[in-house]
Amino acid sequence: MKNETIILGHGSGGKLSHDLIDKYFLPHLKNSILENLDDSAVFDLNDSLLAFTTDSYVVEPIFFPGGDIGKLAVCGTVNDLCMSGAEPLYLSCGFIIEEGFSFDDLEKIVISIKQSADESNVKVIAGDTKVVAKRSADKLFINTSGIGFLRKDYKISGSSAVVGDKVILSGYIGDHGIAVMSERHGLSFETKIKSDCAPLNNIVRNILNEGLGVHVLRDPTRGGLAAVLNEIARQSCVTVYINEDKIPVREEVMGACEIMGLDPLYIANEGKFVAFAAPEDADKTLEIIRSCKYGESAQIIGEVKEKSKGKVILKTSIGGERIVDMPSGLLLPRIC
Amino acid sequence: MKNETIILGHGSGGKLSHDLIDKYFLPHLKNSILENLDDSAVFDLNDSLLAFTTDSYVVEPIFFPGGDIGKLAVCGTVNDLCMSGAEPLYLSCGFIIEEGFSFDDLEKIVISIKQSADESNVKVIAGDTKVVAKRSADKLFINTSGIGFLRKDYKISGSSAVVGDKVILSGYIGDHGIAVMSERHGLSFETKIKSDCAPLNNIVRNILNEGLGVHVLRDPTRGGLAAVLNEIARQSCVTVYINEDKIPVREEVMGACEIMGLDPLYIANEGKFVAFAAPEDADKTLEIIRSCKYGESAQIIGEVKEKSKGKVILKTSIGGERIVDMPSGLLLPRIC
Fold first, then answer.
1. What contacts B332, CB < 8 A, 6 or more positions away?
2. Nearest CA to CA, how far is A91 from chain B (Å)?
3. What's the CA gap between A240 and A161, in Å, rounded?
4. Phi, psi of A294 (to 5 degrees)
5. Is residue A147 within 8 Å of residue B89, measured between CB atoms?
6. A103 contacts B4? CB cut-off 8 A
7. Cα dist. B216→A66, A119, B78, B122, B235 in Å?
8. Where are the domains of chain B?
9. Which of A3, B146, B153, B172 has most Cβ atoms within 10 angstroms of its Cβ?
10. Burial (0-12, 13-18, 19+ Cβ within 10 Å), A202
11. What whole-number distance in Å separates Cα of residue B99 and Cα of residue B91?
């Protein structure tokens, strides 16, 4: 049945989001840069390669364990830039504020933006502020767009995975989604789960500076690891095999998922990435990631085995195999 | 009295907006590029000068006579880029959609984005879509960020006005604000007032290609002509004199303003700009603007007479003089 109106699932990062893009955006706006559908758009300007990306942040609540909407807005856009292999340079921040929002909270968030920008070594150089009436927005939305500088010796793209590539995951999955959801619903677990929200450009720079054979980088935000692996498998026309045993999931995240009937593969992350590396360079890439802040728990979780229309297969802990689908609709609204 | 929370006036483009920026954003985020506070941020990359800008559009209603939020989002950002003297190249579009929004309206707006991008000769190369629950946003907000390429033979900035400069206004003021307000309140006038929403980069390109002595370009959107002239006067530390008789205002806009007790100097425009030109080049600049689409009704409306702390003085039709203040709070919420 055709949906007549937009539903929450269209913002999920899963199948409905892709349908929306395919049916309503691409047919009208398609051009040779936009159609790549990578985390950043890449274009050439006066013989320099630049990356450009945009993201609106509507996370609810705006303060959560391990971060807030300001930190998220900077890290999310920094990560989208570096996932295309770019060195993030400049950000813009557009604020849409609900009337009645407190100055104290606004200042906390601006300070958080500043701290995350400093850690990521980027500058906020352009801004905009709009205010709308009560109930015309929910507290605060932030759009950050970003510009990065691309080295020419790499072509990192979701369509560059090849048979033989090892799939490296930079650490524990599910922390961000479970942290936000716990805060939202007032759930408490024995150990407080914190969002993993963090900038990843330092790790990426270290990998690329070594000249290692890395073909794809992508951060599993909305839709989780399942969504990004499916995207990459489809863009590159390959089958990706992953081993459940190798995927780092914290005990408390697994516990929360079990209670709520969720699969950690589909939970959003904000400080993790997957790298598809040539087999001969995989161990060295893993070593570099593990040597960096935010990459200490990295693992090789799988590999690309054959050409296909794009499929992700999970080898389960008990030895079976199952297809990991693209999430269709909505797991957690307003997770980022 | 200090406001404890954000009020609608903080998004007005007037004094409260400037206070918000000065008190909460600049102290934390200040850097040598951001602090210029021009319509676009300008930075150097590999010996190319680039302009970068961002704007969120929250106009209500999203369809109005002469345009819609999609056309506005493209033209507004194209105009911010060219007001810094840049040739607009690439845009991003970030959509925040309220659950229940219709696909038909979304498609109309995407088509409008495409048409305006084509007319402006820019490409949308990056996008993002978020969906929030009913009453967490009002229908649709769009953020567009943009990148443009700057020629090095010009330094266009709000701080570049000098004594002697002539002030050129590219056409009738107040059309956008009155069109949106009439639509919102169901007012009807004998002649339908249409928004002037239009891309201005073609006019600007023609001026700069002639190598004319133009020092400032700015488009009077939120806060109207009064706000931008005050901004320029303050940034350049000069007094700007304008003649009421020379300022083009349509009869029906003047009539609507009289009925509603508004001053057209404070009403938003979306397809107009002011140029501060050296006296010897003013007539030629005027001639070029008038020869272009969207500039046919341009006028020289005043001049810069002396150094000061920044002041705008209006010579009225009856021969008097009055200070034109920066608007303080809010005239029309959600006008762009």
1. B177, B180, B181, B267, B268
2. 9
3. 9
4. 75, 5
5. no
6. yes
7. 45, 36, 17, 23, 11
8. 31-150, 166-323
9. B146
10. middle
11. 25
pLDDT more than 90, % of chain A: 86
What residues of A are in contact with residue B98 (Cβ under 8 Å)? Answer: 6
CATH code at A166-323:
3.90.650.10
What is the distance between the alpha carbons of residues A232 and B150, in angstroms, rounded to a whole number?
Answer: 36
Only one residue has tokens 């009560």, namely A134
How distant is the Cα of B336 from the closest Cα of chain A, in angstroms? 9
In A, minimum Cα distance to B36 occurs at A125
Entry pTM: 0.96
Q: Which is the CATH superfamily of the domain at A31-150?
A: PurM-like, N-terminal domain (3.30.1330.10)
Contacts of B333 in chain A (CB under 8 A): 131-133
Q: What share of chain A is helix, strand, coil (3-state, %, to 5)?
A: 35, 25, 40
Which residue has 């001639």 as its token pair?
B287
> Could you tell me which residues come within 8 angstroms of residue B206 by beta carbon, excluding any fewer than 6 positions away?
B288, B291, B292
User: Among partner residues B40, B89, B145, which is closest to A145 by beta-carbon distance?
Assistant: B145
Residue to test with chain A: of B23, B32, B44, B56, most A Cβ within 10 A: B56
Residues of chain B by 3-state class (helix, strand, coil), percent to 5:
35, 25, 40
What is chain B's pLDDT, residue by residue, as a tens digit (336 residues)?
Answer: 455 899 999 988 888 998 999 999 999 999 999 988 888 999 998 888 999 999 999 999 999 999 999 999 999 999 999 999 999 999 999 999 999 999 999 999 999 999 999 999 999 999 999 999 999 999 999 999 999 999 888 999 999 999 999 999 999 999 999 999 999 888 777 678 999 999 999 999 999 999 999 999 999 999 999 999 999 999 999 999 999 999 999 999 999 999 888 999 999 999 999 999 999 999 999 999 999 999 999 999 999 999 999 999 999 999 999 999 998 876 678 999
Q: CB of B334 within 8 A of CB of B58?
A: yes
- Spatial CB neighbours of B178, under 8 Å, sequence gap ≥ 6: B193, B252, B253, B256, B257, B267
Domain B31-150 identical in fold to domain B166-323: no
Using a CB-CB distance cutoff of 8 angstroms, which residues of chain B are in contact with residue A268? none
> B94 contacts in A (CB within 8 Å)?
54-56, 143, 145
In chain B, the residue whose alpha carbon lies closest to the alpha carbon of A113 is B29
Size of interface A-B (CB pairs under 8 A): 275
Containing B144, the helix (H) or strand (E) segment is: strand B140-150
d(CA A146, CA A139): 23
Taking the CA of residue B305 and the nearest CA in chain A, the distance in Å comes to 31
